[in-house]
Structure formats: C-alpha cells, structure tokens
Amino acid sequence: MGETFVRMPANRDEVNLYTSLGEALMKTQVVEQALSHSITLKMNPNETKERADEFLQQKQRYTLGQAIKLAVKEKLYSQPIQSELDAFLEQRNWLVHNVICGNEEDFNTGLIKNELLDKIHSIADKAAIIHRSIEYDLIGFCESKGKDMSKIRTVLELQDQGMRIRTKS
Fold it and tell me: Which pLDDT does position 169 carry in this prediction?
C-alpha cells in the first residue's frame, strides 16, 4: 500500500480530451436539470411552490434515462422532442459508460484521435440544442397556462442570435 505513483503531466491531446469530456458532461447535466424542472412544472402546474419544490427534489435524483421514461409515460413532450431525448440518451450513455472502450490503446499512448474528440464535441453541441428545446417547450407550456413569457422568449431569442453570430465568425 505504500506505493508512490509519479504523475506525468498531461500532454496537449490529453488536456484537450479532458476539457472536451468535462464540457460534454456539464452540458449533459444541464439537460438533466432542465428536464427535471420541466417535468416538475408540467406535472404540477397548479401546485404551491413548496409542493413543486418537493416534487423537484425527488425528480432531480433521477438519471437521464429515468427522467425520459417518466416523460414518455406522462406524455409530456412532443414527438420531435421525445425523439431527440431518446437519441441523446444513447449518446450520453456512450459518453459516460463507453468512451474508453475501443480507444484504450490511444489513451495509453496519449494520442487522442480527432474522431473521438469530434464525437464528444457533437454530444456537447447536441446537449446545448436539447437544453434550448426544453426551454422553448416550457415557455410554450407556460403560455398555454396564460403566463406572459414574452420577456423570457425575447432573451432566449437574443441569446440564440448571439450564438449564431459567434459560430459564423
């Protein structure tokens, strides 16, 4: 037990991989949070804040897969959003459980292939898109309940325009 390990500094490829993995995982967690908040509001539109907060606390413990199953069971989302969520779950599961499988040799040599990074980046990008879809869906839900969401909608639309402008540069 008294073994000492000498840590080797990560090379540029490894740092890029770790940063990309971190970004993808964080964006995935944002999707999970958005989903649990959306489920809470959609399933408890007339509850007090206290009761909704209790429900939210329970649902925040759900994995992405559990939350998606609940959404299907309760028919909370349109088919396009539900399909996006289902496809994203597969990508998220690969990221969390299988990113190393098939890439062990590359990891061991410190040579990270661009295809792997591209796949991780696409998961991060897809998470951001799904997050935004959930936000717009929730805005529509609130509007259907008579809430004025015009200010929130304007903020999101301005953010979306800013994101498109940055990606064009």
Answer: 44
The Cα 100–Cα 65 span in angstroms is 21
Region at 77 (left for phi over 0; alpha for psi -120 to 50; beta for the rest): beta
Torsion of CA 71, 77, 82, 85, to 10 degrees: -70
Long-range contacts of 111-116 (CB under 8 A, 24+ apart): 111/13, 112/13, 112/14, 112/16, 112/17, 116/17
* CA 108 – CA 111 distance, rounded (Å): 8
- Residue 76, helix vs strand vs coil: coil
pTM of the model: 0.85
Render pLDDT for 52-93 as a digit per residue (tens, 0 to 9): 999 999 888 899 999 999 999 999 999 999 999 999 999 999
Question: Can you tell me the distance from the alpha carbon of 158 to that of 7, in angstroms, rounded to the nearest whole number?
Answer: 45
Residue 165 and residue 48: Cα distance in Å, rounded?
40
Find out whether 122 and 24 touch, Cβ atoms under 8 Å.
Answer: no
Find, among 161, 168, 159, 166, the residue nearest to 135 by Cα: 159
Name the maximum alpha-carbon separation found in the chain.
Answer: 66
**Integer Cα distance of 166 and 46 in angstroms:** 40
